[in-house]
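User: My collaborator and I are trying to settle a disagreement about how two of our proteins should look. Neither of us wants to argue from intuition anymore, so we agreed to look at predicted structures for both before our next call. Could you fold the first one, then the second, and keep them clearly separated?

Assistant: That sounds like a sensible way to settle it. I'll keep them separate. The first protein:
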Amino acid sequence: MARSELSGFFATLDLSRPEAVRDALLEVVPILVREYGDLASIAAAEWYEQVHPSSYLALTVDGADAARVQGAVRYHAGALFSEDQAKALAGLQGSVQRFVAYSGRQTVARNVALDPLRPRFARVPSGPVTCAFCSLMASRGFVYVTKETAGLTDEFHNDCDCQIVAQWDRDSAHIEGYDPDAMYDRYLVARDAAQSSDPKVILSHMRELFPDQFTDGHVH
């Protein structure tokens, strides 16, 4: 919904005046992110309450910082001063998706951290195929919220479809299509092939060794 509204607003702008377009986007995009981020946070809190095994009042979280949103707008607005002005909208749509989704993801992560029942959580890709980076992150499976696992809830790219999912009963919980063991096996194969502990090098080997498994696989 946020992406659609952004596209509609962008279509009304006079692209022959890139400075004015940039300034308009700096004003409107943070508002879109705040409004739809609040909706995402509320929806995530309601979901958490519905699936919780007992009575629990979930908390919402504040959305993405306005300065971060404006920083992304300034970055993508650079394309307005080029021959490929449509690139600005494409980049902004990806950023808006990430910032809005941030509110929902962080709401779940925050409640997992505060929940007295100490549920575990997983980062779960929701599409049929995901990128190598998200597969690596999701291969951790269901873990407790700790400083060591913070990256599972903090590191997301534009257009990422991963969700943070809580689990209270490991014996009854099952998510169709989510197989962290298989993901981790691919990671181990790539790590052995790379003969390196550098995540960037391992990810490159994952894309080359399993090109059909990732959206960014390298097909030779």
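The second protein, kept apart from the first:
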Amino acid sequence: MKTRNIWRGTLGIVLYLVLALAPLGFMLVGERPMGREFVRELSVALGFVGISVMALQFVVTARISTITLPYGSDAVYHFHHYMSLVVFGLWLAHPVILVVKFPWARALLNPITAPWRARAGLSAVVAVIALVIISVWRKRLKIEYDRWRIWHGILAVLGLILVMTHAFMVGKYIGTPVKRSLWLGYGVVWVLVVLYVRVIRPLRIARRPYAVAEIRPEVGNVWVLALKPVGHAGMQFLPGQFAWLTAWKSPAAHVEHAFSFSSSAERTEQLEFGIKELGDFTATIGELQSGQHVYLEGPFGAFSVDRYPDAEAYAFIAGGIGITPIMSILRTLADRGDRRPLLLIYGNRDWEDVAFRKQLEELQERLSLKIVHVLERPPEGWEGEVGFVTKEMLDRYLPPEERQVTDVFLCGPPPMMDAVTKALIALSIHPKQIHFERFDLA
């Protein structure tokens, strides 16, 4: 399975590079303007690559499992974030080079007197600047997540339409039938992706509803949401994966939120999610009613022991609600009768924050599982670990002779995962043995 994912991942990277750089090849096909300065041609080339990379952004975030599975959803979304900055740089470099090098180009920055082709290009740059600002500083600007998603989509679509309009109105390198066909083909692919994401996929999801079977409180301000499929066979998933949940609205509203499965992958007749009250949407989870219909899209994610079945042992390091996907993994391994040695290091602020603690105690009877609780503010008389998960603590619970045969799974706050990853590498655990997914996607 690992080899297949490596090949698929490599193929995906190669295909992405080909499509991103294809406009450079388009420029050389057929007739092209001659006698133009190199700097001017460079600015055009950067602009064209910027258009293709922007179009690919829609494909990258379309949640097509074939694309996301080899890398993991978090890696795909972080790649999308970084490439958005690349698009910003490319789109900005095109006019800046022209304005700095050629005095005549400065008049094109005047939106009142500039020709429409220049206005379209300038408007596209303004749209992508606004897109970057609301995305990079969303939390500082206190933009609510669902509202941000709406404006993110509007600005992205508007920017791409405007920049394509600019390119076609300028006409250089797009003036021949062959080149028009190539760029129209790009446009058709983009339209099909948008059609799939905005229309076809929501219709498919709407035809496979789930009913709320139970909503029960759990320790640590967590709710356990149990769902049963309505009129269909349900969803097969790998332990540790997640799904996008839509409640109170149609899937066409695109206001879904990502949550990890907490139930066993061997029991798909009822799916369960552990959801902590952390934001506007999660604060309302407890208001769901039994029998109410909700919708799921998934499964997604590469955070699963099933992708690394040859490991002789597993270690899990969780922080707070990061225990949720690990609960799914542990329950699945218990249902399978897996007897490999397992270690769970579970960090929380205090004992009252330790979600699923009773269920974890029960799982110890079915698994070869050692649990280490780490508390920042332990109660009086506490004899367990105190503070944070450190290198010294990991050194005690992961003996040197076990490190080369143990795969480690991390899930928790980003600062914790960063610190623990560095500590594990310092203990000579190979990066290939360390697995995690980050859920701060925006």
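Some points you might bring to the call about the second protein. The first strand starts at residue 210 and ends at 218. The first helix runs from residue 2 to 28.
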